[in-house]
Amino acid sequence: MQALLKIKNLHAGYGPIKALRGINLDVQSGEIVALIGSNGAGKTTLLMAICGIVPPQEGSILYDGQEFAGRKPYHIMNQGIAQVPEGRRIFPRMTVLENLQMGASHKDGNIQNDLERVHAMFPVLAERAGQIGGTLSGGEQQMLAIGRALMSRPRLLLMDEPSLGLAPLIVKQIFDFVREINKAGTTILLVEQNAYAALKLAHRAFVLSTGEIAISGEAKSLLQNPEVRRAYLGG
Ligand code: ATP
Question: Which residues constitute the domain of residue 109?
Answer without folding.
Answer: 89-153
